[in-house]
Design a protein that fits this description.
Blueprint lengths: L19 E4 L6 H14 L4 E5 L3 H9 L5 E4 L10 E6 L8 E6 L5 H18 L2
Parallel strand pairs: 1-2
Antiparallel strand pairs: 3-5, 4-5
Length: 128
């Protein structure tokens, strides 16, 4: 699925605050780390970081094995293992094309509901 700009109000960090997140240490992925943390700070909630990894391929493997969800640049779709789905995500002042990486099957009810809402919003925006 290609990415489109969707209002942060439609899918904010609070929507995924209770989900386990595979993140990045600040020194390794400054922009992605700051986007994640600033988005949660602005929403007044704390991300549930379960671990931090340096490279995106490790993050994708952790997501594929069900450890959590992660924020990734759109280009990683080309290196993603089977079973990882991508949902457009945008928040904050910094604008880079991001997707939410999650398992294609077996996600929690909250993640699955969130993905369906975002897909519906994305389809609505794309058709206008």
């Amino acid at each position: 699925m290609s990415c489109a700009r969707i209002s942060p109000k439609l899918h904010c960090p609070a929507d995924i605050a209770n989900e386990p997140i595979v993140g990045y240490p600040r020194h390794a992925r400054l922009i992605l780390h700051d986007m994640l943390w600033s988005g949660f700070r602005a929403a007044g909630c704390q991300p549930k970081i379960i671990c931090e990894v340096i490279d995106k391929s490790t993050l994708l493997q952790f997501v594929a094995h069900g450890l959590g969800i992660g924020l990734v640049p759109a280009w990683v779709q080309g290196i993603a293992p089977a079973g990882v789905a991508f949902v457009p995500y945008e928040h904050g002042d910094k604008r880079i094309e991001l997707h939410i990486a999650c398992r294609a099957k077996g996600n929690s009810h909250l993640v699955s509901a969130f993905i369906e809402i975002v897909k519906g919003l994305f389809e609505g925006i794309r058709s206008t």
